[in-house]
Amino acid sequence: MTRIAVETDVFVVGGGPSGLAVAVAARNRGFSVTVADIAQPPIDKACGEGIMPDGLAALRQLGVNIPLDAAAPFQGIRFLDDKSAVQARFAQGPGLGIRRTKLHEILIDKAAEAGIDMHWGAHVTGLTPDGVTINGINVRCRWVVGADGQNSRVRCWSGLESVRSAPSTRFGFRRHYRVAPWSEFVEVYWTRHGQLYVTPVGPEEICIAFISRNSKLRLEAFAAFPQIHARLKGADLITREQGAVSATRALRSVYRESTVLVGEASGSVDAITGDGLSMAFQQAYALAEAFSHNDLAQYQRAHRRIERLPRMMANLMLLMDRSHWLRGRSLRALEATPNLFTRMLAVHTGELPVFRIGMEETLSFGWHLLRA
What we know:
Blueprint: E1 7-13, H1 17-28, E2 33-37, E3 50-51, H2 53-61, E4 72-74, E5 76-80, E6 85-89, E7 95-97, H3 100-114, E8 117-120, E9 124-128, E10 131-134, E11 137-146, H4 153-157, E12 168-178, E13 185-191, E14 194-202, E15 205-212, H5 226-232, E16 236-237, E17 242-250, E18 255-256, E19 259-261, E20 267-268, H6 276-292, H7 296-322, H8 324-336, H9 338-348, H10 359-371
Parallel strand pairs: 1-2, 1-11, 2-8, 5-13, 11-19
Antiparallel strand pairs: 3-7, 4-7, 5-6, 9-10, 10-11, 12-15, 12-16, 12-17, 13-14, 14-15, 17-20, 18-19
Helix pairs in contact: 1-3, 1-6, 2-6, 6-7, 7-8, 8-10
């Protein structure tokens, strides 16, 4: 391990995508930055591995561009159940599916290029009055950033555990298969037990993820869809099944004094929306801007603004998840009003304000919902 500097402007605890994004954003503003993580890169995590167009735009703001040969584009979202299918294209360009490990490598390279001090396999054991303790060494800093995930120790150490509403959890599982993507969309299959996501992540590779309220269910749920089962028959399994918790948590505050939280450490939205990375990258840019103004209250306001729409969309989609009756009727109504689904997707990705959804389309959807 390289020598640890005893003083830095920004110390980031957690070297995943959100932590590295904050580090790059802060370095772009001229601050000295140190990142520490107990893990060794590349760091993997069970997730759908799709980055929505607004997440890619946030990455570009940080000066991070993902090479096209490292990812697979997808043009929109397709919802399906056993009776209906509706799809919509992104208005502002494609999203990208990319292996989590590859994304981590790209962000590490960007951080190294920016001159960020990174320490892997490092033990951050607590906060001090003027910084943090890492491997028994006290490091002084202006700000400590907790980017250490949904079970954040920094959040606990700083007393930021208070939530605005009771947290809830679901359970996700992921595998990769060597097979050519059969759709230019991310496909979301709705079942009685959860959602199955199919995301292209390469020219000959897809990611299959399943999210459910039942921790005992596994990816065999795709057997309920004969078309998926047939496409994967004989395909090589590239990675073993990996699981994670999809948590919904809204904190009362994301900072205290000079300690501030980002990414899932700062609260999270159920993975049903696919907004986790997009939110983290937007938060990173907003936090660096707050550093420049020495005003973490500014970041608190931006954080609330960034999470508002994803939380609203997650609540709507989770309502569909809870009710088989409502889900079936909603998908059939959307199938009959495809323009509304396109505009809803544009709202979801930040391309269209909520109030721009037309009254005529909404009324048409309501009529078809009643008739479904």
